[in-house]
């Protein structure tokens, strides 16, 4: 573990010495993040930035593949500036989904924010983390990854549009990076006008890696998600200083529910993300629990009576105000038809009428999209959707 010095002055050595013993790249996530760099996930609100960051954190802390990319196991520190309870739900859901034990995992959470751009404050934080690492029986090395979520929460009072003030923040992030020899990953928002990282261009200029996340339906720099319940999105590399990087990753959220440890057995509901190749036969994989419930109820109803009304569907699914959920299902079915290269006439209507028209080609070809789950699964979905 390094000692708590302030700023490390870089050495100046002959090029012959540097070239005589070039060290291999230490990947934290193969082709995605290497150790000792500064990285960022930059995206508009509601694009699952924190979910992706937590997925990276848990994957590295456990040595589990991240979306198909091997990881190098190491301690991780996650600075959670907002939504402390939500982070616990998300981490719990991740370990539940992976069927892994969390008790001996070297993952540490910093709850609460501070002005990280201030040298004295950052020095105090480094000392506090060092003491925590030394006091943890499962920690035997410095952190491999430090995640700051979000940039604005740890830059209190900083003018993001000022190049000089941004440079001050970058200096402290690099101090954190060099002190621990870790990769520092910043979760940051975008500017509405440009779609680029919010604030001074000095921020992006300092990055070794930058990733963005867009949801299905996002078009252009200022667009919104086609439907906030659609859990499909794409992670794209938008900057890499030294490496070719990866092609865009299509991912999809999976809803996970359960209960926390302890006598109270507090319930939680969260998402985890997996690779989505667009060809998964399970129509339910990319739908929210509410949409799964409504689609299942609809398929059950038409098996008994093709003339399903909105009131019948509301009663069967135990849901009201179905317009938004039906819209999500319709958008997904349209996507599925295109993926399967099935010729169909796009319905001009919305809602239940469009749903009937879209499901017809799947019924005709006896495809999984037109096959409902059993009634017990329906009852489970009703219970889960009420958590």
Question: How does this structure look, described?
Answer:
- This protein has 387 residues and is an alpha/beta fold.
- It folds into two domains: 15-275, 3-Layer(aba) Sandwich (Rossmann fold); 289-385, no CATH class.
- Helix content is 36%, strand content 17%.
- The chain contains eleven helices and eleven strands.
- Strand 4, helix 3 and strand 5 (107-111) form a beta-alpha-beta unit.
- The radius of gyration is 24 Å and the shape is elongated.
- It starts with 14 loop residues before the first helix and ends with a helix.
- Residues 221-228 and 381-387 have low confidence and may be disordered.
Q: Uncertain regions: pLDDT < 50 for 5+ in a row? A: 221-228, 381-387
Assigned CATH superfamily of the largest domain: P-loop containing nucleotide triphosphate hydrolases
Structural class: alpha/beta
**Mean pLDDT, rounded to whole units?**
83
Would you tell me which CATH topology of the largest domain applies?
Rossmann fold
Major β-sheet annotation? 9 strands, mixed
Percent of residues in helices comes to 25-40%
| N to C succession of SSEs | HEEEHEHEHEHEHEEEEHHHHH
């Amino acid at each position: 573990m390094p000692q708590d010095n302030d700023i490390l002055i870089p050495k100046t050595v002959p090029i012959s010495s540097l070239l005589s013993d070039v060290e291999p790249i230490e990947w934290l996530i193969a082709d995605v993040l290497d150790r000792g760099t500064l990285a960022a996930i930059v995206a508009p609100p509601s694009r699952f930035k924190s979910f992706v960051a937590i997925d990276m954190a848990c994957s590295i802390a456990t040595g589990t593949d991240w979306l198909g990319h091997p990881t190098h196991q190491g301690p991780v520190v996650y600075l959670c500036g907002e939504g402390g309870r939500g982070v616990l739900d998300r981490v719990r859901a991740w370990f539940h989904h992976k069927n892994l034990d969390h008790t001996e995992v070297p993952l540490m959470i910093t709850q609460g924010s501070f002005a990280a751009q201030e040298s004295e404050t950052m020095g105090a934080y480094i000392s506090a983390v060092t003491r925590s690492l030394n006091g943890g029986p499962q920690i035997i090395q410095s952190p491999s990854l430090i995640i700051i979520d979000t940039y604005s929460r740890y830059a209190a009072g900083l003018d993001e549009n000022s190049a000089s003030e941004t440079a001050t923040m970058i200096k402290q992030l690099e101090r954190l990076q060099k002190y621990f020899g870790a990769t520092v990953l910043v979760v940051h928002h975008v500017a509405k006008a440009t779609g680029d990282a919010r604030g001074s261009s000095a921020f992006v200029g300092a990055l070794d890696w930058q990733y963005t996340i867009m949801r299905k339906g996002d078009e252009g720099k200022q667009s919104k998600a086609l439907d906030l319940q659609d859990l499909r999105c794409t992670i794209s590399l938008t900057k890499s200083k030294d490496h070719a990087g990866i092609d865009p990753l299509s991912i999809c959220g999976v809803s996970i529910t359960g209960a926390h440890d302890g006598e109270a057995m507090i319930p939680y509901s969260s998402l985890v993300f997996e690779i989505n190749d667009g060809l998964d036969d399970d129509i339910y994989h990319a739908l929210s629990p509410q949409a799964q419930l409504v689609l299942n109820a609809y398929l059950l109803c038409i098996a008994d009576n093709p003339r399903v009304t909105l009131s019948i569907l509301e009663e069967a699914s135990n849901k009201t105000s179905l317009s938004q959920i039906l819209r999500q299902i319709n958008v997904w079915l349209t996507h599925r038809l295109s993926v399967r290269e099935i010729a169909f006439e796009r319905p001009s209507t919305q809602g239940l009428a469009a749903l009937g028209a879209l499901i017809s080609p799947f019924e005709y070809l006896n495809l999984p999209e037109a096959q409902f789950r059993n009634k017990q699964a329906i009852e489970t979905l009703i219970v889960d959707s009420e958590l």
